[in-house]
Amino acid sequence: xxxxxxxSFFVWCAGCDRDALDLCSKKEQIKHALxxxxxxxxxxxxxxxxxxxxxxxFGDVGIIYPVLGGLVWAMIVFVFDRFIVSTFKKKDNIxxxxxxxxxxxxxxxxxxxxxxxxxxxxLLIFSETIEQEIGEMAILExxxxxxxxxxxxxx
Length: 155
What we know:
By secondary structure, the chain is mostly helical. It contains 8 helices and no strands.
């Protein structure tokens, strides 16, 4: 029961027609369900990414606004990613696929989504290193300014 619901949801995420997919082999059905899972992953990462970004940007506004912002961003990522996957039509030649204008725009859009989803997560992961580097740069800048005005300070 639950397995069928999850499978149907993943197939829907992939943008597949369930009636047409029921006529295919089990292997093909599993492949399309996995496509749906791949569509869901960036949306989940987008939710956490935007929630973190909003919570660090706005500070103490509570949890509801970052979570709502994360949900909105996750839905945007999900809808666009589902559109990309569900509208892909394979040509008879891979070179025709790669050099089509539709493929180019999908590739650019996918790269954009990847960057916007991953950037806040990278800031979270490397926040200690970034703060340490900023602290070291501030100390070096203070020492540089002190050395420039050391003569004036001594007078």
